[in-house]
Amino acid sequence: MELTAVHEHVWVIRGAVNMGLVRTQGDGLVAVDTGLDKQAGKTLEKAAKEIGLPLRAIVNTHAHADHFGGNAYLLSRTPVTVYAPEGEAAVIRRPMFEPEYLWQGASPLPQLQNKFLLAQASPVHVEYTPGVPFEVDGTTFLPVALPGHAAAQCGILVHDVCFAADAYFDPPVVDKHGVPYMVDYLATCRSADSLRSVQAAWFVPGHGEPARRPDAVIDYLKQRHEQAFQTVLAACRHPRSLDELLADVCRARNLAPANPGAYVLLRTPIAAYVTAAVGQGRMEIIMDGGKLQFLTIEK
Ligand SMILES: [Zn+2]
């Protein structure tokens, strides 16, 4: 376990998914996200023991399985209060929504019901609102609206540290995914930009290294999204279905999703580019023989 102090009262447990621990005024600890699974919950428990303070609460940033998967274990060990953004809480309470929405609302393929996409359910005791500070055990947490990667994702600003959730990823993470997951292209760009004006001594992304300033990595993320968006617009000079577009982007990025999970995690951002293009009047919809197709409007 790699426990790094980024502030007198704030620690980051570095891993494939970062987790935070915040010391409260009342000498307790608050976890910011709980990782993928029971094992991540155990790691948090061990870290709290090492610091020597009791875990009092969990603050989740968004309802992706790899960010709240440790909730259930921690709740089974100690009575903690769970906080989550009001627009994300429903999925934490009923995690089956995640593989369902990835499979267009249908009962999901068994291959989509793994721990990466389907966490154990957890109660949410308090739903917080972006921009409205809340107090836990005497310490103030400010939720920062960062929609885009998830519909109602929030960052958390506490003790001069900004937990940025998945509003941006480090370049190696971006490159690994090829097209980073998001549900709203324009909101993703706006949220990443809004982080530039956040004053904090440290920024902690959900995946990647804590940094003093995230500006360069934000630039990289936006640039990679913009390139993929342009690939989609160019491919739609001829009518293309979503699956054809996905294949076009895979060719352009040298990607080959190896399983249904990897496929749906790529399909969602491609669909989000299409929604943005149609919304901006840059693309039209063509229905043809049972195919939903998209055509770029040449100006
Ligand atoms: Zn996420």
From TrEMBL:
Species this protein is from: Alicyclobacillus cycloheptanicus
Domain Metallo-beta-lactamase: 16-207
UniProt cross-references to InterPro entries, sorted A to Z: Metallo-B-lactamas, NDM-1-like, RibonucZ/Hydroxyglut_hydro
Gene3D superfamilies tied to this protein: Ribonuclease Z/Hydroxyacylglutathione hydrolase-like
Domain of life: Bacteria
Protein's name in the database: Glyoxylase-like metal-dependent hydrolase (Beta-lactamase superfamily II)
SMART domains referenced in this protein's UniProt entry, alphabetically: Lactamase_B
